[in-house]
Specification:
- The protein is mainly alpha-helical.
- The termini are far apart.
Length: about 190
Amino acid sequence: MADRRQRKTKIAVQNAFMRLMLEKDIAKITVKDVATLADINRSTFYLHYYDIYDIQTEIARDTCEKILQLVREQDFDSIVRDPYPLLKAISDYLTADPLLAKFLLADDAGLYAEIQSALCTRLSRLYAATHPDIPAAEIDTSITFATSGVFSVYAAWFRSDRSTPLADVCKQLGLLIADGVRPLVERSV
């Protein structure tokens, strides 16, 4: 029972923090602000977190771990050949929690680059471990290019009117990652 209550409290605190971050800079957010919005007292806050920045760190770590879990659930070579299933799984994860998605992909949240960097590092290591014949610099450049593009497109989609279904966006991203822009350029010639 205590575990469920603790999880519920942490979720309330994280949601309160994300809502506040969408309104103002982290430097202007106080523990009192978060506690009030989460409907807890300050001492309860300190049972779970050291400070405001601790919440942000936990959200980034948990999100990165969840996305990496989605990667690990698939064969890495299959992802390279057809990234759509992974992209769809990530988009499903993000759309399941609109507040989290909006928070993570907000320009001023600062987590966007942090999570992307952590994912690039881990994905590069995973790929390098199974493909030792490919130079690390090439792997790093390719992974950085792909993740940067994916994160940028997700951010743009969440800020847009969302007239294109995210599944369609994921299909296009998958094709771009697998085939590059050449098929698009060749279609327009």
